[in-house]
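Q: Hi! First time doing this. I have a protein sequence and I read that you can turn it into a structure. Is that right? Here it is:
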Amino acid sequence: MTRSLPLIFSAPRRATPPTHLADLTPTGRAAAVARAGQPAYRAKQLARHYFAGLTRDAAEMTDLPGAGRAEFVETLLPELLTEVRSLGCDDGDTRKTLWRAHDGTLIESVLMRYPDRITLCVSSQAGCGMACPFCATGQGGLQRNLSAAEIIEQVRLAARAARDGALGAPGRLSNVVFMGMGEPLANYRRVLTAVRTIIAAPPAGLGISARSVTVSTVGLVPAIDKLTAERLQVRLAVSLHAPDDKLRDTLVPVNERWKIDEVLTAARGYADVTGRRVSIEYALIRDVNDQPWRGDLLGSLLHTRLGRLVHVNVIPLNPTPGSRWDASPKPVQDEFVRRVRAQGVACTVRDTRGQEIAAACGQLAAQVGAGK
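A: Yes, that's right. Below is the predicted 3D structure, encoded as structure tokens:
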């Protein structure tokens, strides 16, 4: 029996973003260029500037005819995102940017430098319909899905910023994680198009290794099954946040549709087909899901179901203003990690970034939307 996503995960209808070169297949790009009155080979020239040169500035595209160049570029590479605000912290290693789309929608992305990589946390939706009560984005609800090009444009802009020294010394964007605003697998078709373009070699795409791309989900089982069938080498991250259904029903409401057993079965299927370890994301919340016995249960459950094909990321909660949810004290966090590891499961604490710049997903958008 085919499992399907419930209608409640559908985004409200809003103005459609303009079609962009990055929304299209190579064949579609050539056709769009021809419709714009140019030879089809101009599609590869445009793609080379956009994906390899990281630009949509017609003035930089001197291999295109000067007459009508600006209009041609604007037709195929329309401006999708404009910067509203950009904030830095962590000694310049973290940069959070708020973007405004063509219809006024606000979305966020976070660029982070680590010793061995530069990572972008990208949004796949404006808002989120999963309604997890401790998440700032979930509190605001779902506004709309982002187009594939709007997702890719976040990556292109981040790659350009890293190249041009936005985090200090110039560097190369190496990793992309779909852990920003939204539930990526609830926008499956556009996210998959974006992923394929992100990992495609220039000039077809941005040339980031598939193994350096992570797609997260709260546990939409049918979509995990679909992603498994794609046989991509991207990493799957499951936001579990509780090892028992009673608590997870309250923290992750979609658990009422697909219980932990189904989610882990789908995750194991993904690991078996791809050979990639699944990441289990666990936001540690004071006096809610941080009890020692839950650490024991989480470790035992994952060891039984996923064996060595799993890694737990414990995430110290980044509390949102006015929220009743708070991060666990460090001694509690350390004991939780110790108990998971004692069950034979790899477990680390995610490096916290950007607490002073509202780096939890949705916080900056909520502030600007409220006129703060």
